[in-house]
Amino acid sequence: MLFRERLHVPVLWWVLAVLFALSMLAAVGLYLGPVWGVAVFAATLAVAAGMFLAAAVAIEVDDRELRVGRAVIERPWIESCLALDAPAAEVRAGVQADARAHLVLRPYIATAVEVVLRDPADPVPYWLVSTRRPARLAAALAGQTEAAR
């Protein structure tokens, strides 16, 4: 494995979910009673945890492929890669975005990597992937791409 990263939601989001669940406990508990309050608290936390865990994405690079969540691209189809800092990633995901691109972006991660593809049969021109370590991901992909040529 040349690179591995899991994109989790920040701890602050978990804290906010717990605070929201506590407010639901207080509101429902005072209105309908403590049993309903605890039930709504538990349900709110379960829904938040399910959403946060489902939103986590794994990025993996090995000598054969790039895997981002369930999407996979084999190394012969990777033409180039570019690490993007926060301003460049914002521009590339906004005004310079291509509607055909495969985007795996998270609002809580400002940096990204652009992976340009060279498959003539695939209408997707590039992948834009959020990562906390864009230089390391780009280096892993560059080494992989150079080995494929």
In the sheet with the most strands, the strands line up as 1-2-3-4
How many individual domains?
A: 2
- What is the N-to-C order of secondary-structure elements (H for helix, E for strand)? EHHEEEEHEEEH
Helix content: 40-55%
Overall strand count: 8
Overall mean pLDDT: 94
**Gyration radius over CA:** 20 Å
Spatial separation of the terminal alpha carbons: 20 Å
Largest sheet: 4 strands, antiparallel
Question: Low-confidence runs (pLDDT<50, min 5 residues)?
Answer: none
Structural class: alpha+beta
SSE layout and pairings?
Blueprint: E1 3-7, H1 11-32, H2 34-55, E2 57-61, E3 65-68, E4 71-74, E5 78-84, H3 86-93, E6 102-104, E7 112-117, E8 126-130, H4 134-148
Parallel strand pairs: 6-8
Antiparallel strand pairs: 1-2, 2-3, 3-4, 5-7, 7-8
Any overview of this molecule?
With 149 residues, the protein is an alpha+beta fold. The protein folds into two domains: 3-55; 61-148, no CATH class. The chain is built from four helices and eight strands; from the N terminus they run E-H-H-E-E-E-E-H-E-E-E-H. It has helices at 11-32, 34-55, 86-93, 134-148; strands at residues 3-7, 57-61, 65-68, 71-74, 78-84, 102-104, 112-117, 126-130. The strands form two sheets. The chain has a four-stranded antiparallel β-sheet, covered by helices on one side. Helix 1 (11-32) runs antiparallel to helix 2 (34-55). The longest helix has 22 residues, at 11-32. The chain is elongated. This is DUF3093 domain-containing protein. The chain crosses the membrane at residues 12-32, 38-59. InterPro entries: DUF3093 (IPR021443). Keywords: Membrane, Transmembrane, Transmembrane helix. Pfam families: DUF3093 (PF11292).
